[in-house]
Amino acid sequence: MRLTAQQLGISIGLVSISFFFSALILAFGFRIQDQPFLKEFHTPGVLWASTFVLALSSIFLESSRREIRRALIGVYRSRLGATLVLALLFLLLQGLAAFQLLAEGAPMQGNPRASMYYVFMALHAAHLAGGVCGLMYLHISSGVLFAATETDLRNHRKLISAASVYWHFMGILWLILFFFLQHWSN
After folding, report:
1. Which of 80, 152, 166, 183 is a Cys-bridge partner for 64, taking CB atoms 3.0 to 4.6 Å apart?
2. Dihedral, CA atoms, 72, 73, 76, 81, nearest 10 degrees?
3. Residue 108 pLDDT > 90, yes or no?
4. Residues 175, 21 contacting (CB under 8 angstroms)
5. Is residue 54 within 8 Å of residue 134, measured between CB atoms?
6. Cα–Cα distance between 55 and 90 in angstroms, integer?
7. Structure letter (DSSP) for residue 105
8. Which of 63, 89, 88, 87 is nearest to 76 (CA)?
9. Cα(65)–Cα(63) distance, integer angstroms
10. Residue of 168, 170, 149 whose CA lies nearest to 160
11. Residue 116, SS3 per DSSP
12. How far apart are CA 13 and CA 16, in angstroms?
């Protein structure tokens, strides 16, 4: 099996992101283990809502991929647009969660249990924002697909496939990070 340039690029990127976040999880795990009795705080409930929104965005993205395979450009574009709206809502909810943590008195400095929330949410959001940019590019470039050739459609399908691998990876990564946030904040 031969990898396309998009598949190879995404694979290399996801491996490096995996190592990066694994190192962060290990570093915070050791740091929290050293200081078990710090001020407690609660996980903002909005993080559960944001997790649901991110999962819903993955469903819409897969639905849009199915429609582009069937060459239903209008339906593809609307579902890809819904994916983008949900992605932006996820980022907004993450920001709201950070403000709720600050309002609860969870400091960014001096408390590794609190700072891991800010670090995990900010770094994940930054990587997710990169995915949003990719999806925006696909949405904008899909406008010409109404008059496209089969080769144009095929090339766009390769791009959306690579973008969806990245997007679903970000969703799974958030579930892993959220698990550790829940586990370490209790």
Report:
1. 80
2. -160
3. no
4. no
5. no
6. 10
7. T
8. 63
9. 5
10. 168
11. helix
12. 5
Q: Which of 155, 166, 99 is nearest to 130 (CA)?
A: 166
The region of weakest confidence among 34-48, 68-82, 132-146 is 34-48
**62-105: pLDDT as tens digits:** 999 999 999 999 999 999 999 999 999 999 999 999 898 888 87
Nearest to 38 by CA among 87, 85, 107: 107
Question: What is the DSSP code string of 29-73?
Answer: HHHHHH---SPP----THHHHHHHHHHHHHHHHHHHHHHHHTT-H
Contact 61, 85 (CB under 8 A): no
The count of C-alpha atoms lying within 13 angstroms of the C-alpha of 50, restricted to the half-sphere facing its C-beta, is: 26
**Does any domain span residue 31?**
no
141 inside domain: yes
Residue 2 counted as domain residue: no
Domain containing residue 167: CATH number: 1.20.120.80
